[in-house]
Amino acid sequence: MATEKTFYLETFGCQMNAHDSEKVIGTLVHEGYRQVELEQDAGLILYNTCSIRDKAEQKVFNRLNDHKKLYKAGKRFGVLGCVAQQEGEKIFERAPYVSLVSGSASYRKLPEMLARLEDGETRITGLDDRQTEETFETEFTSRQNPYRGYITIIEGCDKFCAYCVVPYTRGKERSRSSSSVLAEARRIADQGYTEIQLLGQNVNSYRDPEGKLNFAELLAAVGQVSGIRRVRFTTSHPRDFTRDIVAAIDAVPTLCDHVHLPVQSGSSRVLKMMAREYTREWYLERIGWLKAAKRPISLSTDIIVGFPGETADDFIQTMDLLQEVEYDCVFGFKYSARPNTPALTMIDTIPEAEKAQRLQVLLDRQREIQRINYSRQIGNIVEVMVEGMNPGRGQIIGRSSQNKPVNFTSSALIAPAPGAYRQVRITGAFPNSLLGEAVQ
Ligand code: 5AD
Ligand code: SF4
Q1: Nearest residue to 114 (alpha-carbon basis) of 78, 150, 86, 88
Q2: Which of 214, 235, 254, 375 gives 20 to 30 Å between its CA and that of 175?
Q3: Which of 54, 82, 86, 164 to mutate to test the pocket of ligand 2 (most atoms within 8 A of CB)?
Q4: CATH fold of the domain at 149-373
């Protein structure tokens, strides 16, 4: 009898990576592998990696180091994702027990690469597809999230921001056809999902290869799929953010009241150095459109502090922008120099301690903004989709359409399952979550 083929997969990084892993798992299962929970129990150990910042990149090498002794027990290792694409065959030098290195643009070839692995090959690579026009579509996606169905609509990135590895790791920008996206949306609605999240490095740069729908039209069409109650999308790029996206949110109630629009800096001078291709004014104009929507739309953003050449005055402009927009959530990062990127050659004179201090000032200010924003919700009744339970506190955990975490109690005897919807009266607020009770 042939021995059973088993694999372990750990994912680092963004939602794109998390969803890639769902597709990779589905592909492996279709190839006869069984997923296991522990490295020790697997014949094949895979890491789907992230290289957006130095810290993220180090994680995979730590993990490989922790488990390399398992190689002697006959286990095989594979590195997938952004570190794989970025470091390529150098990974075989650094970790000679790794047999497979593949970037996300080559996942279509996984069945073939797995077959070679089973034949005993030890240096298999999928690294040459960054210029491909093809997207990775599979009917075998193994959805790991019980309440949110992810759909990739656009892969890769052509924006080449000065600090960013993604155009080098995920390759050229390429969109899926709108008919294939809509077919997948219908399929997962039939499976019982009511929330869809459309994914892409820049979702709103979407260009239908069939020429049928633009991004706003695709959003509206997904929002009208029977059974779908919530549609999210991430990430949007300010340069391609058009007014018809706001009009679509206004017109289609299933499109969530939340837009993630990374600004990166509040200084036009820094934005120019970052090659973001918009100014502070351009960005704020789009925020103005969003604030004028019929429903209050929650806003979130990403900010990098300490980009090479960022002065104290540039940073003050970022702080002013924070105050002006009043985001509900900010992901703040210290600039991290990345291989291959143009910013690597810029002179970086800001001391680490200064970068850390700017980040702390930013996050402290944002916490105060959120404390006020969230407390404005007290007394409102909001619809919450249940994500799980916190048995210790006797609370049900969920999220509002605005993407705010809501922890609530209910007098009902049976706890609602993940994916259920409840009307919740908000009774309390913290900077990062709301407290409430289910309305009977
Ligand atoms: N250093 C710090 N932060 C970065 N990001 C992307 N590249 C870098 C980098 N080199 C941040 C950006 C992006 C988010 C996903 O990660 O803010 O929007
Ligand atoms: Fe990390 Fe960017 Fe790759 Fe996502 S696309 S895994 S954030 S490097």
Answers
A1: 78
A2: 254
A3: 82
A4: pyruvate-formate lyase- activating enzyme (3.80.30)
